[in-house]
């Protein structure tokens, strides 16, 4: 994307098992900044987003803003569902392009482009399933899954019980057909693209902190260019890619599967689809689990929620630095978080001065290190890579940060980003004024420099959006109208902060929350035995916890020992053996994940900045 020149700070762009310690610093300041932003002291009152007229470039008109659920769309969804229920799904072998092996089956379901016109243009959603393994009398039908995003592809969900070691997936598969789908615009489901995949993500890029005024202008120009390339801004599929339409698609999929009620597992953005579905179709909710819960507050969707998310990323980044410092005896990077930050800064400056292999600069390295905020499993590999780089071995950093060159992988990554942009920009009004963006993010970056500006660049195309937008859905339900929904949340999750679970519990009465205390992993299910037991009991047996539950967080990872040879660092198991390739950190042996590993990663909750195929930086494939 960007070409690194000069030094890393304030320069222009050229070209394209132990207890946790609570964070002690910055909390009061961070809280004050959040309050200031929400109160509008950065320039505009909270919730008062100016979407009128043109942007300050004077070239772009404001988008049309409509209600999220018109009577015509509601009627169209029911008509499409009735039609899908009559037709069903013709299951058969999966196309080789899906890379899904037997016994997984694939099929398609036709849905309208525009639910207000259900007899108009349509397209096929692609679905996959692994049939239930238990006896017929114990089977419940289908469990549908969405991994998040927007832009995540759930087609590989049926692989979970076949390839992942965690027992909960096989236990669920005894009762359920495991069904995944590629949402509208994703993968084979009428894919969206906003730019040439070979140009998207091309390195080396730079991630200056703080960015100069010239850098900001250049990034805003590129955001406008990217937005202009999206189909919704060219009059194609205008207004088609929204969360309300994803929820309607889910309603149609339920009918095509022959189920009166939806049994559903949504992670990350998939929880927002579930919340909207419960609002639109309360009579068709079965057993629903929302893991790592998006805050559905319509005032926060999406500008404020993305902005305030940076505070949570900063806290998780500090968690990792403090962990590295506590293991100074292994890492040798210093005994304080500040020492570790200096080592990271030195790495960033070095790769901008001389990009690794000419393609990895500070932007690519930042994207890899962002993975430590998503998963504790990334912590040892990220630290070991930093240690190796300081010792003169860049290979571990390079392996985790290298942009993909496989055409199919590049297309998947650009497609995922295009869907993310299109859905978030279409889902809600966004500020049109650059002064608003600059003031808000400059204030936030004072306390949360790690991700604030990278978050801004990711979402900045929405400032230039000219396609239709909807007002955010007011997620809610009357008491007694919904069965209990299970909300699963890590207390220190950065991508979906814990406030989201509290807000959904308030808006959807009867919901029960399972909190992983002190933990920060994004996507809790499949790694905590206490949580997994509650999930299994709820989904398989219908056992609802008597009240909100708290599970102890999983133990912090142990650091890897010093590098054992040229070319990187391998983890060592407790018995002293080196784990097989399926357990190693992606890229640390010099090769990207391939085969089943890459497929599984595609169906995991995607991290922003994820490498092609959805593999985020240093995160090893979970088992």
Automatic annotation (TrEMBL):
Annotated region described as Disordered, given as residue ranges: 1-24, 47-71, 550-596
Biased composition (Low complexity): 47-56
Protein family: Belongs to the peptidase S33 family.
GO molecular function: hydrolase activity
This protein's UniProt keywords: Hydrolase, Signal
Protein name in the entry: Alpha/beta fold hydrolase
Pfam families xrefs: Abhydrolase_4
Domain of life: Bacteria
Ranges annotated as biased composition (Basic and acidic residues): 1-17
Domain Peptidase S33 tripeptidyl aminopeptidase-like C-terminal: 453-551
């Amino acid at each position: 994307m960007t070409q690194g020149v000069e030094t890393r700070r304030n320069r222009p762009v050229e070209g394209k098992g132990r207890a946790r310690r609570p964070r002690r610093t910055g909390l009061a300041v961070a809280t004050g900044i959040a309050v200031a932003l929400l109160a509008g002291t950065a320039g505009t009152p909270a919730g008062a987003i100016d979407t009128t007229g043109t942007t300050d470039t004077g070239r772009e008109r404001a988008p049309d803003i409509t209600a999220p659920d018109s009577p015509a769309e509601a009627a169209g969804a029911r008509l499409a569902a009735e039609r899908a229920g009559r037709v069903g799904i013709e299951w058969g072998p999966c196309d080789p392009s899906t890379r899904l092996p037997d016994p997984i089956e694939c099929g398609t379901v036709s849905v309208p482009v525009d639910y207000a016109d259900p007899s108009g243009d349509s397209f096929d959603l692609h679905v996959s399933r692994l049939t239930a393994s238990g006896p017929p009398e114990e089977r419940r039908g289908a469990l549908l899954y969405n991994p998040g995003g927007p832009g995540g592809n759930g087609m590989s969900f049926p692989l979970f019980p076949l390839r992942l070691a965690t027992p909960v997936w096989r236990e669920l598969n005894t009762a359920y057909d495991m069904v995944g789908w590629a949402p509208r615009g994703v993968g084979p489901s009428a894919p969206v693209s906003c730019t040439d995949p070979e140009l998207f993500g091309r390195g080396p890029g730079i991630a200056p902190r703080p960015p100069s005024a010239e850098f900001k202008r250049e990034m805003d120009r590129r955001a406008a260019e990217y937005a202009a390339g999206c189909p919704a801004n060219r009059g194609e599929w205008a207004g088609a890619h929204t969360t309300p339409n994803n929820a309607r698609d889910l309603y149609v999929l339920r009918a095509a599967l022959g189920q009166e009620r939806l049994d559903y597992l949504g992670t990350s953005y998939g929880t927002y689809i579930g919340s909207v579905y419960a609002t639109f179709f309360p009579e068709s909710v079965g057993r629903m689990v929302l893991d790592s819960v998006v805050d559905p507050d319509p005032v926060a969707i999406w500008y404020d929620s993305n902005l305030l998310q940076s505070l949570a990323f900063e806290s998780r980044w500090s968690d990792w630095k403090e962990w590295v410092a506590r293991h100074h005896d292994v890492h040798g990077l210093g005994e304080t978080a500040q020492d570790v930050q200096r080592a990271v800064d030195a790495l960033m400056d070095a790769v901008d001065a001389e990009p690794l292999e000419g393609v990895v600069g500070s932007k690519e390295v930042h994207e890899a290190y962002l993975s430590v905020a998503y998963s504790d499993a990334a912590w040892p590999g990220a630290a070991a890579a930093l240690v190796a780089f300081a010792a003169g071995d860049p290979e571990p950093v390079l392996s985790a940060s290298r942009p993909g060159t496989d055409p199919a992988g590049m297309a998947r990554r650009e497609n995922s980003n295009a869907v993310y942009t299109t859905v978030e920009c279409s889902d809600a009004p966004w500020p049109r004024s650059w002064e608003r963006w600059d003031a808000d993010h400059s204030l936030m970056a004072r306390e949360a420099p790690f991700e604030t500006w990278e978050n801004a660049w990711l979402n900045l195309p929405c400032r230039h959006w000219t396609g239709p937008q909807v007002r955010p859905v007011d997620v809610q339900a009357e008491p007694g109208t919904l069965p209990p929904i299970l909300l699963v949340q890590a207390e220190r999750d950065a991508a979906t902060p814990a406030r989201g679970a509290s807000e959904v519990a308030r808006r959807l009465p009867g919901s029960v929350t399972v909190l992983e205390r002190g933990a920060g992993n994004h996507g809790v299910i499949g790694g905590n035995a206490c949580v997994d037991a509650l999930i299994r009991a709820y989904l398989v047996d219908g056992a609802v916890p008597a009240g909100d539950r708290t599970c102890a967080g999983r133990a912090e990872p142990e650091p890897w020992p010093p590098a054992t040879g040229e070319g990187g660092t391998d983890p060592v198991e407790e018995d002293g053996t080196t784990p097989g390739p399926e357990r190693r950190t992606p890229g640390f042996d010099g090769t990207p994940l391939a085969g089943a590993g890459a497929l599984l990663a595609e169906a995991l909750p995607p991290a922003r900045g994820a490498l092609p195929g959805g593999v985020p930086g240093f995160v090893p494939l979970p088992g």
